Hints:
Elements: E1 3-8, H1 12-27, E2 31-32, E3 41-46, H2 51-67, E4 72-77, H3 78-82, H4 84-88, E5 93-96, H5 105-109, E6 128-134, H6 145-149, E7 153-154, H7 157-169, E8 174-179, H8 195-203, E9 210-213, H9 223-229, E10 238-244, H10 248-254, H11 260-273, E11 278-285, H12 292-304, E12 309-314, H13 331-354, E13 360-369, E14 372-376, E15 382-386, E16 395-404, E17 407-415
Parallel strand pairs: 1-2, 1-3, 3-4, 4-5, 6-8, 8-9, 10-11, 11-12
Antiparallel strand pairs: 6-7, 13-14, 13-16, 14-15, 16-17
Amino acid sequence: MESFSIQNFGCRVNQAEAFAWTAEFQKRGWRYEPDAERSGLVILNSCTLTARADREARKFLRHLLRANPAARVVVTGCLAERDPGGLEQLPGVWKIVPNSEKTDLPRLLAPDLRAVETADARPFRSRALLKVQDGCNMACAFCVIPKVRGSSASVPPADVLARVEDLVRQRFREIVLTGIHLCSYGRDLAPPSSLLEMLRAIDGLPGEFRLRLSSLDPRLLPPELLEHLTSSPRVCPHFHLSLQHGSDRVLKAMGRTSTVAQYDTTLRFLRTRSPQAGIGADIIVGFPGETADDFRALEAFLERAPLTYLHVFPYSPRPGTPASTAKAVDGRTAKSRAARLRALSRAKNLEFRERFVGTVLEAAVIRTSAAGADVLTPNYIDVRVPASGAKEGSSVTIVLTRVTERGASGEIVNEDRR
């Protein structure tokens, strides 16, 4: 049986693609190998959101080509789309697959379909990831993704529902809906649909499962969608928003067409309607023209906002984007500002998790080992529990016993052994 391995860089959409590839390769009789250095076929699903993402992908490739020179190495994803020529120069790279062909990647690489009784993607992920949208029609000044992913394209609702039903039959208790610009789901379809319509349809499906949503754009969160997100019994109380900044002047320069007041309104609504929710945000520091006053406004906004964690990125100029020709904030200043916000994130997250010590919570088992298991609560708290018979992907009930800045621990009080 031929082996394959997948190395992901970047966003949840890449993870969802790899999840789908894993199931498809297994249907074709291939064996998933978690160690890329031992695999006959290695697929690198790349990211190019930042210069660091580029470096990490190339570093992995150089190491892999030395450690496993016999492997057939395939590179796809956004870096492969943006710089195929640079990747082709690396000795040992077998194929470059553009984003336009990556959906058919298993068929391209393993054309022979073999009869296999079960095809389970659990060796790759304990939760199911489902890509329902790709591409982006927005024009943020810093972002290269529309150039490498193309225009927004949605999976038809009937196909989404069929895939959700299939994942539920496989007994996945949590399904993560992903998209490059998830909030624009359905706008490109004929007839047009929406993320709200899709969520309402999924709510009506039978089975025991919950939904977790990937990043949401606050510019496309109308009141009726916010109402559904905070009232649906299916949707996890965990919301991650692409805020990017907390200065109106910088937001305008970014092409974000949002205001801090609008962000405030959205965040307060989420917190009021979903008091236990984990609420996160993407934040960029060091954008060209960001002054000390702009950063102070950003920091003050984040301090008062009901956020529970931050993903902080120093600005990284991307070739071909409008902001790439402007003078960025110097690297040392950007790094210092990022460090301040990451410290703020740690403090806010610790405060949030401390609220739940002694509380009984539902959780999904993410990974297991002889030493214990890592579980994830619906409101996005990672908890370490002692070893048990719980299987990856199953549901458990835990009590949270202790939290520190570095993590949280708890005890399992009930297991779903189905």
